[in-house]
Amino acid sequence: MDKKLIHAVAGSGKTRTIIDSLNTNDRTAIITYTTANQEELKRRVIKRFGRIPDNIHIFGLFQFLYNFCIRPTGLYSETKGFILSTPPKKTKYYSNPYTNGKYFLSNMLSKFLIDKKEETNYLDRIQTFFDCIYIDEVQDITSYDFDWILTLIEADVSLYYLGDFYQKTFFSSRNGKKGSAVHSDYYKWQSEFSKKGFVIDNKTLLNSHRCPASICDFIYSNMGIPIVSNKSEYYEVREIIDSNEINSIMKNGSIKKLFYQRHYSYDCNSQNWGDSKGLEFENVCVILNNSTYKNYKSNSLSMLASSTKSKFYVACTRTLGNLYFIEEKKVASYKII
Fold first, then answer.
1. Residue 33 near residue 140 (C-beta atoms within 8 A)
2. What pLDDT is recorded for position 76?
3. Among the four 206, 265, 298, 328, which has the fewest Cβ within 10 Å?
4. For residue 93, is pLDDT > 70?
């Protein structure tokens, strides 16, 4: 059975690859972290089959951990569900590290399953009900959740984990500094899968169907992120300095303006860098906050902090056409809050 980590660059057709591989025979679970991505997967499955077939199940990560893996065991049967939370610094008020009163802590669900592996028998349950497991946007799976998805290699099911490490703009769970070193370095992250026995596929989804060649060249040359374009057309990638041209772009509703944060503070068609993941626009203008602008001007974008670099990469890869950059202080006149 396949056990694969498939690294999929921005716009390479990751979701399409999952949807196209589905059939009405294999009992399949698709797991993802964000609610938005869960809904998008449902929409795409319905578009292909006209409905969600009985053999295909689409889960949110915590939904799968609690409802499918924990609840049927009867352990902690008095719990009512889970809450999106992290353990307080002082845990003496709680009788165990997994729950807060009647609710499991979301960031401890995977830890509970790992610690109670023999009691929960979650691997047996998974292979009893499923033939194939997909984890979409696997780069979002962190902390104990990351440890848990690695244990699934022991199950007698096919595993396909798809995602783009460099688009790590969400963290499914946080538990202090756990996993911080692994999740800040692509090669360390990939190595954890390889050591467990996963086959690493860095080639199938290397080419972007969304981003023009000029965008991919900019990203690889300036950020060191390998990405290749399937497009040959030339589009602009440049900084906008002229005040008249800045005003023209800011007033042009067809050009999406992407801000590092607080995009709603500006009177224009805008969104935040990280929140634009999964979307695409005809043309994009990335508004550069102070620290990123300094790195941009000094040709050191590859040295951005890991989280900022991921969000900036997401922002740059949303465009189907031109990519513009404007220093944030030069659009101050459009600020309304």
1. yes
2. 87
3. 298
4. no
Q: Where are the alpha helices (DSSP H) in 186-230?
A: 186-196, 213-223
The pLDDT, as a whole number, for residue 95 is 57
Q: Are 32 and 135 contacting, i.e. CB atoms less than 8 angstroms apart? A: yes
Sole residue written with tokens 């513009």:
324
- Alpha helices per DSSP H over the chain: 14-21, 35-49, 61-63, 109-115, 117-120, 122-129, 143-151, 186-196, 213-223, 243-251, 290-297, 306-316
pLDDT at 101: 84
- Band of pLDDT at residue 88, cut at 50, 70 and 90: low
Q: Assign residue 190 a region (left: φ > 0; alpha: ψ between -120 and 50; beta: otherwise).
A: alpha
CB-neighbour burial class of residue 52 (10 A; exposed 0-12, middle 13-18, buried 19+): middle
Q: Which residue has the higher pLDDT, 39 or 95?
A: 39
Round to whole Å and give the CA distance between 314 and 274. Answer: 7
Distance of CA 153 to the CA centre of its chain: 21
User: pLDDT averaged over the chain?
Assistant: 94
